[in-house]
From TrEMBL:
SMART domains reported for this sequence: CM_2
Chorismate mutase domain sequence ranges: 11-101
EC number per UniProt: 5.4.99.5
Pfam (any one): CM_2
InterPro entries assigned: Chorismate_II_sf, Chorismate_mutase-related, CM_dom_sf, CM_II_prokaryot, Isochorismate_pyruvate-lyase
Name the UniProt record assigns to this protein: chorismate mutase
Length: 106
């Protein structure tokens, strides 16, 4: 499945590197918006979790990664891309959440 918008061509329709770059740049803007929204959920988690030790939940990490890998397979995204990207994302989100948790309780 490819989400096409007016501001970027479908990958299969690209005939120049300028078109490829235009598509990648447009996707990057969308990814930033989605990541910003994900970060706001980390803000909410830090606000809701009363115990600092619950910020890191290894079972939840593995659950998220398993779901991402399943969705990657469904969408045709290589698991060799999906898994390390999400593990890095999750670790950075956990680090961010610890910082927010500490800040709102100090």
């Amino acid at each position: 499945m490819t989400l096409i918008t007016e501001d970027r061509p479908a990958p299969a329709d690209c005939t120049t590197m300028a078109e490829v770059r235009k598509g990648v740049d447009a996707l990057d803007r969308q990814l930033v918006a989605l990541l910003a929204e994900r970060q706001r959920y980390m803000d909410a988690a830090a606000r809701i979790k009363q115990d600092r030790e619950t910020v890191r939940d290894n079972a939840r990490v593995e659950d998220v990664v398993a779901k991402v890998k399943a969705e990657a397979r469904r969408m045709g995204l290589s698991e060799e891309i999906a898994e390390p990207v999400w593990r890095t994302l999750i670790e950075q989100c956990i680090r961010y959440e610890f910082g927010v948790w500490d800040r709102i309780r100090s």
